[in-house]
Amino acid sequence: MSSINTNLSAITALQSLKATQTSMNKNQNQISTGLRVSEASHNASYWSISTKMKSDNGALGAVKDSIKQSKAMIDTYTSALDKSMKYLDTMKAKLTAGSNPGADLAAIQVELKSSIEGLKSAAGSATFNGQNWLEGSPSTVKLVTSYDGESQKVNSLEIDTTKVNLFDDVADPKAGLLKNVANIDIATAPKAQGYTDLAIDAAKVNATAGSEDKIYIKLSDAPNTTLTFTVTGTGSLQDLADDINADAGADNVDSKIEASVVDGKLRITSKTAGVDVSASFSDTAAGAAGTAAGTMKLDTTALTGLSQGDKIKFTANAVPLSFTVGSEKNAAELAASINADTNLKTQVTATSDDDGNLILTSKTGTVSAMTFENTTKGVDTTYGQIAVKDALKAVDKAINDLRAGSAMLGANKALLETQEEFIGVLSDSLTAGVSAFIDADMNEVSTRNQALQTQQQLGVQALSMANQNSQMILKLFQ
After folding, report:
1. In a domain, 3, yes or no
2. Do 361 and 391 belong to one domain?
């Protein structure tokens, strides 16, 4: 049936052309944007997933920027610490030179002051983005390292700035790793109390009656007087120090010196400023009666550790006598030296046996109360050099502290570099994932565009032909 009101062929051709046009519009949109899912209506699921992934990737980009800033910040502080280490090394060299008696401490202090100002400058100028870990109040700083999209949480690396805090205030340091260094002044040091350190093995301290160990002390304000402390108990070095501090014997040891334990050594300190101290510890071993009448013997065990300054004491015919060890290394050499001694050879004869024991025999009577004192001398100081020694100790400690701080910063920077690499890989993976969901395959789009253009041309021709069907009806009425 032919109708002039309804052209079914034209309607069909028009619908087909519209569908083709719609497909072309969609295809051209993909060509212009490069996306096959550019809005939720194209694919709600893919659009939602890709949107979240792009958001997470943006957060990761911010994390990467933060890590770069953190690395630059650490580099700033590391450079300042390296410079500070050079200043400290210079100070250490100057103080070592100042340890020599007669050194010009005032001139050295001028050089030390210059290095101290350099340390303050390095700490005060180590500012990055308004932060300075080397100066001010130490705290725990959190550096951004990652973003967890699942839990919407920013993860961070905690750094304790106490380990690199050089000064609380460079203008007036009262705290910080370099506080003691900043206060060094060897030119106008107070006349501190002198002290000496004795290296004593507490396990060998002897309080046995008749062979008690002794500590001999001399003070520079009374050079001809020797204070004697006789060991009254055994135990730790701290126990020995406590006994010395409680001694109120004839020499009034407790009123003139104070004992303490420092770095595993017994420290004897003058209670008077400007007074030097020297001391020695006598590890006493008692001799035994010999097999023959009028003899006494020191066995080879007692003579272990023989050194210059050790003493052999004994009584011969009621006369107290002593022999001070020089270069002798064994009992045979001791015997030869005693027999050559002008004061001793008239009283006793010294021999040694095959076991390395020393034997004394009285020439006219008896030998008794024989002891061997193995002497340990303290490390003497003078109060003029105490400031130098303490300063050198403070600088050494500062060097170790800064070395530990630099190592901490280096380890954290290495961690940030590893994290930065991981974040980069993760960001690339998210970018690839987003592409898989929403990016158009341009090869496919291009091929489809050619096909749609052909379909469009055919549709136009089909519609034109369908419209001509109505013209054919006119011919029927001619």
Report:
1. no
2. no
CA distances 169 to 172, 173, 179, 400, Å, are 5, 5, 10, 21
Q: How far apart are CA 328 and CA 298, in angstroms?
A: 15
Q: What angle do CA 215, 218, 220 make, to 5 degrees?
A: 160
- Are 183 and 90 part of one and the same domain? yes
Query: Cα–Cα distance between 458 and 464 in angstroms, integer?
Result: 10
**Domain match, 314 and 355 both:** yes
* Per-residue pLDDT reduced to its tens digit, 297-341: 887 777 777 888 888 888 888 888 889 988 888 888 999 999 999
- Which range marks the domain in which residue 17 is found? 8-34+440-476
Do 78 and 156 sit in the same domain of this protein? yes
Domain end, chosen from 282, 304, 329, is at 282
209 and 93 in a single domain? The answer is no
Question: Residue 168, exposed/middle/buried by CB under 10 A (0-12, 13-18, 19+)?
Answer: middle
Model confidence at 237: pLDDT above 90: no
Question: With contact defined as beta carbons under 8 Å apart, do 260 and 226 qualify?
Answer: no
Partners of residue 257 on adjacent β-strands: 270
**CA nearest neighbour of 430 among 87, 49, 176:** 49
340 and 228 both lie in a single domain: no
The span from the CA of 406 to the CA of 307, in Å, is 45
Is residue 119 a contact partner of residue 88, using CB atoms and an 8 Å limit?
Answer: yes
Euclidean distance between CA atoms 286 and 292, whole angstroms = 18
